[in-house]
Amino acid sequence: MGNFLIGKNTRILYKSGTNYLNVEGIKSITLPSDSPDELDTAQYGVAGDFDSFMPGLITAGTFGLTQDYTEAAYDTFFTLMLAKTNIEFVILFKIDDTPTYDAYKFNAYVTGMPITCSVGEIMTNELNLQLTGQMTKITTPSPLPAVPTQVYGIKGLGTQIKIAKDETTPTYKDLIFAYECNGPDFTLSYEDIAYFEMAGIVKEKLPLTFSVGNFEITSIVATDTVTGALKYDDILGYAQISQKCLITITYPDGSYFSGKGYVMDVNRDVPIKGKQGYSFSFRLTEKPTFTKV
After folding, report:
1. How far apart are CA 228 and CA 250, in angstroms?
2. Strand pairing partners for 39?
3. Residue 8: helix, strand or coil by DSSP?
4. pTM here?
5. CA distance 212 to 185
6. pLDDT for position 157
């Protein structure tokens, strides 16, 4: 009978300078699946009706992490992402009830960090990691940082969204009755790198540019709007004339995103039983700014 392991005691570390630090507040982990290239070996005169192949170089997979949002952790990795930093990570799998771990080291780039913010839920963010090169089993690093403490996230209640339509002398107006705001969903693109001298058979990655990103916002349609606040008609109007706008999204802890872009893909939902709502994308046209408290 085997000693079966559960995932709860798994830890992920990242290297900062000469020290390993905890990646805190992790709620879920999606481990990578390495996929080798298939090299076609079909030849003339070989009997049989089935294709044949041999495995080639391996394309490194991706790690997907979900964290409870905190501005300190988000700011750390958001800065590393924008700098296209090749980061060393270690994942530790706890062995039974002993103090020992199985440790695996890998290097990766942060390729995306969208935030999920809903009025009645705990805010979370993704930490998407593109591996580069070989993942290897190592001796557990020493000294290990202390076991991470419980991170208590924040609810989306209290998030504020403001939009201005004039870049020169912007006058921001509140978007009221919004209840969901997710993003930004831009990602870092990359290119496979393989060369004769590389160690192992796993391709490395060359980071390139960031894609266009969006904030996806959902709000309730209402007639008793606050004077000066943005209504459905205003948002629809911005989209219809391709109005370049400014946006700030301030979270309950005071941290906020600001950026420039266009209102796109305005959709109105009219259920026969239930509240009317509308959603739209705020598509960024340049790098947004994240400001921590």
Report:
1. 19
2. 54
3. coil
4. 0.92
5. 8
6. 97
